[in-house]
Amino acid sequence: MDWDNVVGSLAEDVVYHNIPMEKVQGREAAAAVITGMRPTAVFWEMISIAENGDKVLTERIDNFDMPTFYPCDGDIRDRKWQDQGMA
């Protein structure tokens, strides 16, 4: 994954809010969150995308290849997964 290219494409004043994580502002803060998970590869499957003024909303499936496992709400054995507190 070319993380320098990913980070370089962010606006200096980007606001990054990946629910349920804390909202961060600024390229450096967003880069720390995104690269902090240390994925070796990421594939984002876009389902829908919408904008309203200065807001962009996405419905997507995030596919991460990660060297370690991070727990989430749900049971991966049953393929039940939620990271926003919604069923």
What do these coordinates show?
18% of the residues lie in helices and 38% in strands. With 87 residues, it is of the alpha+beta class. The protein has one domain: Nuclear Transport Factor 2, Chain: A (Roll), CATH 3.10.450.50. Strands 1-2 form a two-stranded antiparallel sheet. The protein has a two-stranded antiparallel ribbon with strand order 3-4. Strands 5-6 form a two-stranded antiparallel sheet. The longest helix has 10 residues. The protein starts with a helix and ends in a 5-residue tail after the last strand. The model has no long low-confidence stretch (mean pLDDT 78).
What topology does this entry show?
Elements: H1 3-8, E1 15-16, E2 24-25, H2 27-36, E3 41-52, E4 55-65, E5 73-75, E6 80-82
Antiparallel strand pairs: 1-2, 3-4, 5-6
CATH class: Alpha Beta
Number of strands: 6
Shape: globular
Quaternary arrangement of the chains shown?
A: single chain
Q: Architecture, according to CATH?
A: Roll
What string, H for helix and E for strand, traces the elements in order?
HEEHEEEE
How many structural units, i.e. domains?
A: 1
End-to-end separation:
31 Å
**CATH topology heading:** Nuclear Transport Factor 2, Chain: A
Radius of gyration, taken over Cα atoms and rounded to an integer in Å? 14 Å
Strands side by side in the biggest sheet: 1-2
> What does the average pLDDT come to?
78
Helix count? Answer: 2
Low-confidence stretches: none
Instruction: Tell me the fraction of residues in β-strands, as a range.
Output: 35-45%
Report the major sheet: 2 strands, antiparallel
Estimated helix fraction: 10-25%
The class by helix and strand makeup works out as: alpha+beta
